[in-house]
Amino acid sequence: MGTSAEAAEPHFSFTPSFIALTDSATPGTTTFYPNGWLPLGAHVVDGATHKTRVYFGFDIGGVPRARLRSAQLRVIDMGATDCSKPRALEGRPVADFTTANSWNRPPASAGSTVTPVAEAPGCEAVINFDLTAGLDKALQRQQRRLYVEIKVPGGKENELAYGRYLDQNNFHLNVELTNTAPRTPTKLTYDGDTDCFAATYYAGTDFTVRADQSDPDAGDALRTEIEYWPLSDPAATTPIQTFQGSGGDGVFGFGTIQIGGLAEAAYGWHARTYDQRAYSAWSAACTFVVDRTVPNTPGVSSTDYPENPPAPTGEVGHPGTFTFTANGSDDVVEFLYGTSPFSLFQRVAADHPGGSATVQWTPRATGVQTLYVASLDRAHLRSPARAYKINVRSYGVNAYPTGQAPDPAGTRAAVVTMHFETQAGNGLTRFAYSIDGGAQQFAPVGADGVTDVQTAPLGFGEHTLTYAGQDSAGTSHYDPITTTFYVLDAPAITSDGVYPIDGTGGGVGVEGVFTVTPYVAADVQDVQYFTTSDSNHRTVTVDADGKARVHWTPTEPGWTYFWFAVRYTDGTVSSWQSFAVTVNG
Fold first, then answer.
1. Distance between CA 222 and CA 445 in Å, rounded?
2. Are strands 356-361 and 346-349 parallel, antiparallel or unpaired?
3. What is the pLDDT of residue 4?
4. First to last CA, the chain
5. Which of 201, 264, 311, 443 would be a feasible disulfide site paired with 378, CB 3.0-4.6 Å?
6. pTM
7. Structural domain boundaries in the chain
8. Could you name the domain of life of the organism this protein comes from (predicted)?
9. pLDDT of the residue at 266
10. Is residue 389 within 8 Å of residue 308, measured between CB atoms?
């Protein structure tokens, strides 16, 4: 797992920031930044003999002297006047070259003369001057620029056969530093914050791995290599593309492990650092698991609130203890729960992977309630939600009239059907009630929690009902409730069909008849009515059959509202009955 270090570029490769050419034919002047190939030694130009030397200046700031290993001036020798002659060139560091320098006033020597070494045989070749000692002295003197002189040496400088040319603009001072291998990467994490040495689980989402880098050699360009493999086959490594970053802890390398195509299995990964010359050791292996198996639906139980109980238990506001289990899934680490399968916002950790958890949960409503619970495994896969139905006890009682019937004895009264209801099976056994502050009465609670009671005849008008539920010991769990209800004696109205009740019919000038039947026959004197078109109260006598007939002929089309009541012999008036009709236009 890993390869040897590949060939690296120099630590520094400087191109000259300064070039000058001096010529014996113009001994008092200097050509700065000359164009074309640079001639060295003796040459004939336009019948005149010239002897030339070349000077380079390299800005060497930033080179750490303590790590200096070598410095090579690399140029390309393009050839000589006579290639049968051996190459004759030399270089040496010199003092700063200024505008005062020329052929007649060359800069002073600043180091030893060096002879170049060719990279290949022949008259034309890349050649290197070893300027390590000269650069070291320049750095020791804290120079910002290293000046180098290149020339044909000694008496050969006067011989035309030894004249040479350097390639135009192809000059480099390549500096190599001593190198120490990077340190082994540290702080290996998943997604920037999860320690990788604890097994981590993923289902289908790619994730980022990261490793911090460091190198004893300050300034080296570092690169992280990361690879992963199935634990069952450590030789089957897969490298990933990496990138470099920096933060509060320094520099780090990171990359994405794409798990879309990986089989469900356990995997390892590690990292090493490369500084362009040497590799660090591989880090210890981290592990992760690809898991796409959804956990089982969890188990749920509670002694306080059993599932689907035969009778309600507990009470609103009373917490119960609920136990969640992994139901055979050994990688469940958490349970989610709530009152909707789409809002499982409450969470509790399992006591161990595949274990259980106990929570206190308080119902907020009576009757059948559902607690939804889902399991979450280490790969963040969620199980289907378990619907756990409970029935929360309520001692609440409700009562209201559902109907009335005239007193069979014919008095001006009615028998009212009173409906009582409570939650079935809640432990209440009877309803206790009284009407208008009278004696308390009792009615047994039906198996479905419902009981209907017929009252004694009640006079028409407003009445009060006070009621409560009681258990077998006669205890009421809530204070009695008092409410009002009405016994009404409004008459019944029928139509002969010309003008249907709350309907449309007839027409202007067309008579219709409404029949008014009093709720009770006793003590009826007559019937009164008025309309929206005629607010004057009109009186209609009662026929021998105890009913009154109202003949009505509209004078305009549209909507009309009627009110009818019975007047008794004592002058009192019954409840009013109303309806509307619409006359055809």
1. 84
2. unpaired
3. 43
4. 99
5. 201
6. 0.64
7. 12-177, 186-290, 299-392, 397-486, 492-583
8. Bacteria
9. 93
10. yes
Distance CA 339, CA 277 (A): 62
Spacing of C-alpha 273 from chain mean position: 33
- Specify which residues 11 forms β-bridges with: none
Cα separation, 333 vs 84, whole angstroms:
84
Q: 192's torsion region: left (phi>0), alpha (psi -120 to 50) or beta? A: left
Question: Which ranges constitute the DSSP H helices of 91-198?
Answer: 132-140
Can you list the pairs that 43-52 forms with residues at least 24 positions away whose Cβ atoms lie under 8 Å?
43/81, 43/160, 43/163, 44/160, 49/25, 49/160, 50/23, 50/24, 50/25, 51/23, 51/24, 51/25, 51/103, 51/157, 51/158, 52/21, 52/22, 52/23, 52/24
- As beta bridge partners, residue 74 has 128, 172
Cβ–Cβ < 8 Å for 213, 181: no
Amino acid at 259: I
Please name which of 94, 80, 2 lies closest in space to residue 42, comparing C-alpha atoms. Answer: 80
Tokens describing residue 113: 């003369």
- The amino acid present at 122, given as its one-letter code, is G
Say if residue 104 is exposed, middle or buried (CB neighbours under 10 Å; 0-12, 13-18, 19+).
exposed
**Alpha carbons 409 and 413: distance in angstroms, whole number:** 9
Report the distance separating Cα 272 and Cα 280, nearest Å.
6
The CATH architecture annotation of domain 299-392 reads: Sandwich (2.60)
Bridge partners (DSSP) of residue 505 are 583
Q: How far is CA 114 from each of CA 68, 111, 133, rounded to the nearest angstrom?
A: 18, 9, 10
Fold annotation for 397-486: Immunoglobulin-like (2.60.40)
CA distance 391 to 373: 17
Strands 164-166 and 194-195: unpaired
**Tokens 């192809």 -> residue:** 170
Report whether pLDDT(528) > 80: yes
Q: Give the integer Cα–Cα distance in Å for 373 and 324.
A: 8
CA distances from residue 324 to 89, 158, 300 in whole angstroms, order as listed:
89, 101, 5
**Mean pLDDT to the nearest integer, 469-481:** 95
Query: Containing H/E element for 107?
Result: none
Interval 499-526: pLDDT, tens: 999 999 999 999 999 999 999 999 999 9
Query: Could you tell me the two tokens for 341?
Result: 């399968």
Quote the strand ranges of 197-285, DSSP E: 200-202, 207-212, 223-230, 238-240, 242-247, 250-257, 265-274
- Residue 441, C-beta contacts closer than 8 angstroms, at least 6 positions apart: 432, 433, 434, 453
Tell me how many degrees the CA angle 119-122-124 measures, rounded to the nearest 5.
Answer: 75
CATH topology of domain 492-583: Immunoglobulin-like (2.60.40)
Q: Which is nearest to 461 in space by CA: 417, 400, 520, 413?
A: 413
Which amino acid, 540? V
Backbone phi, psi, residue 200, to 5°: -120, 145
Say how far residue 515 (Cα) sits from the centre of its chain.
Answer: 72
CATH homologous superfamily of domain 186-290? Immunoglobulins (2.60.40.10)
Residue 253 burial (CB count, 10 A): 23
Give CA–CA dist 180/218, Å, rounded. Answer: 10
Q: Hey, do 12-177 and 492-583 end up sharing a CATH topology, with the first three levels equal?
A: no
Q: In the CATH hierarchy, which fold is given to the domain comprising 12-177?
A: Jelly Rolls (2.60.120)
